[in-house]
Amino acid sequence: MTNYASADRLTTGDLARAAGLTTKAVRLYDERGLLHPARTSEGWRLFDRTQVDRARLIALLRSLGAPLGVVAELLDAGGTSDPTDPGGVLGAFDRWWAQEQATHAGRAPLAELVRRRLAGEDLPALAAARREVPEQLVLTVTCRTDAAGLPDALRRSAGTLFEQLTPDDVAGPLFTVYRGRVTPDGDGEVETCVPVVAPLRPAHGSVLRVEPAATLAVVTVPGPPDAVGFARMVEVHDALSSGRFTLDGAGGAEPCGPNREITYPPHEEQRTDVAVPVG
């Protein structure tokens, strides 16, 4: 089979990896006219690199709850980026968002992020802290889920792990590795991990493996996990995965692995750490 991919042209799989999406989501966005690939004589999709940012923006709009039809209207809006222009993209976005605010007040930070992306603004970097994590032995469960099923999937995975362990077996806080982007349009692979003190025999469906040592860029989100807003978590994940952060007050670093969330027992300070490995 001919290899059509190049430095300037991306296959569906290439675009999915670059944007942190599933190939299913990329195909859906293409079928709905939200992405604009060229086609080879054999019918293969080929995307130019401008489509990576467009695909990320589509994912942000979908995380905000925008229907695909609204996403199409916003992406194809004419006019200017002047919010007073009723035919412009920001005017169209503001009108739609005004209708949604009553029921989606908790997503306001994500709306502001999307609005600034639509306006082409340079977004401020989040402040992340460097954390050195040694090699760990971890008991893990992996599943696939979309955004709607994520809370239940995380609860089930944690339950499966902790029912195999005593408190003395646990060597550190539970963390969840997002090996694929979880969106309303596509399921991603999610691995829930608990560090353990010593080797043990995993139950069916669980895996015992070694998690390599890593340097993490960490953003702490205050509050119990159930109380942390979805919009805030999406904002932090997007910043970390795209490299939009500073590290210990200095310049940033290049992400080199999947994002993760680290959660802590109820008796400790209530917070969620969102992190990405850096080179």
Overview of this protein structure:
This protein is of the alpha+beta class and 279 residues long. It is built from eight helices and twelve strands. Strand 2 and strand 3 form a beta hairpin. Helix 1 (12-19) packs across helix 3 and helix 4 packs antiparallel against helix 5 (89-100). It is globular. The model has no long low-confidence stretch (mean pLDDT 88).
Features:
279 residues, alpha+beta, nine-stranded mixed β-sheet, three-stranded antiparallel β-sheet, 24% strand
**N-to-C SSE series?**
EHHEEHHHHEEHEEEEHEEE
Q: What is the makeup of the main sheet? A: 9 strands, mixed
Tell me the structural class: alpha+beta
Integer-rounded radius of gyration? 20 Å
Biggest sheet, strands in spatial order? Answer: 8-5-7-6-11-12-9-4-10
- Please count the helical segments: 8
Helix proportion range? 25-40%
Distance between the termini: 35 Å
- Would you count the extended β strands for me? 12
Short description:
The chain has 279 residues and is an alpha+beta fold. It is built from 8 helices and 12 strands.
Give me the secondary-structure topology.
Elements: E1 9-10, H1 12-19, H2 23-31, E2 38-39, E3 45-48, H3 50-63, H4 68-75, H5 89-100, H6 108-118, E4 126-133, E5 136-145, H7 150-162, E6 175-178, E7 188-195, E8 207-211, E9 214-222, H8 230-241, E10 245-247, E11 260-263, E12 271-277
Parallel strand pairs: 4-10
Antiparallel strand pairs: 1-3, 2-3, 4-9, 5-7, 5-8, 6-7, 6-11, 9-12, 11-12
Helix pairs in contact: 1-2, 1-3, 3-6, 4-5, 6-8
